[in-house]
Write a structure and sequence with these properties.
Length: about 280
């Protein structure tokens, strides 16, 4: 099966992965708030493990499993608080939990640069786990669970990526940020923007949790911040001289590759909807 997939073009692999993964993702998001939580908790864990693994390729020694555990606790506590199962005071659990990172490193005698690795451990929680906790908050933005807002944002992200891919492949000539990502072009970004705006219009007709102008605003944020998210991850991968964060998803690389646009766009989306709702 692996050999067959590898013999296919990147586009064919992308289509096959989408046909299998997208219905599963949508089912988990729509079925219940618990399956929604389980989905994003799992993705957060896998993406954080990928992040720490990549850091390890460059000779760093972050606390891979403890850092991932902290990220999982952050996502879980956020869900339980937003759902009303536990009070907000439980957020304070994270303070001693994260402080223990310093204590653990104190006993790692072989670590020549402990504070750099402490910083990388914290970065894994902030860069990877925190955005997925914000996705949970997005679902409970009006103090009741709704899958429309997070699913809508994912659809906007996928539309932006797909539009940029096809427009860039067909018309891409003007480099967007050649130093970091030689294949990205302004033409691709325009294609991503148009695709995202088209999906925002459709969402405004059927997903009524947000007003039409809010969907268009989310679409614009995702195109801009999502592109920067992709560039930031490209910069990270380039610094350790690899192409993909992993080969978990055929045609897409790893979970970091697939959700890099979400990691940097979701903080702006939450802020936008909180301030202008």
């Amino acid at each position: 099966m692996n050999t067959k997939l590898q013999s296919m073009s990147n586009l064919q692999q992308r289509v096959i992965a989408a046909v299998i993964a997208v219905p599963f993702l949508i089912f988990c998001m729509v079925f219940s708030d618990w399956t929604f939580y389980g989905l994003f908790a799992l993705i957060a864990i896998l993406a954080q493990l990928e992040f720490y693994k990549l850091l390890g390729l460059n000779g760093n020694e972050p606390l891979t499993y403890y850092g991932t555990f902290c990220g999982f606790v952050l996502v879980t506590i956020t869900f339980l608080i937003e759902k009303g199962v536990i009070p907000e005071a439980n957020y304070y659990i994270l303070s001693p939990l994260m402080t223990l990172i310093f204590f653990i490193k104190l006993y790692k005698a072989q670590d020549d640069k402990p504070f750099r690795n402490i910083a990388y451990t914290f970065l894994g929680v902030i860069y990877v786990a925190l955005p997925f906790a914000l996705v949970i908050i997005l679902a409970f933005l009006t103090y009741r669970f709704s899958w429309q807002r997070p699913l809508g944002c994912l659809l906007l992200l996928w539309a932006s990526d797909t539009g940029a891919y096809f427009a860039g492949t067909k018309f891409g000539k003007t480099k967007l940020f050649e130093r970091v990502s030689p294949k990205k072009s302004w033409e691709g970004s325009v294609g991503g923007f148009l695709a995202s705006m088209g999906v925002a219009f459709i969402l405004s007709q059927y997903f009524l949790d947000l007003k039409a102008w809010q969907w268009f605003g989310c679409g614009a944020i995702i195109v801009v911040a999502g592109t920067y998210g992709d560039l930031v991850e490209s910069l990270f991968k380039r610094s350790i001289k690899i192409k993909d964060s992993a080969s978990t998803i055929p045609g897409h690389g790893g979970f970091l590759d697939r959700f890099d646009g979400l990691l940097l766009s979701i903080p702006f989306i939450i802020t936008f909807l909180k301030l202008f709702s």
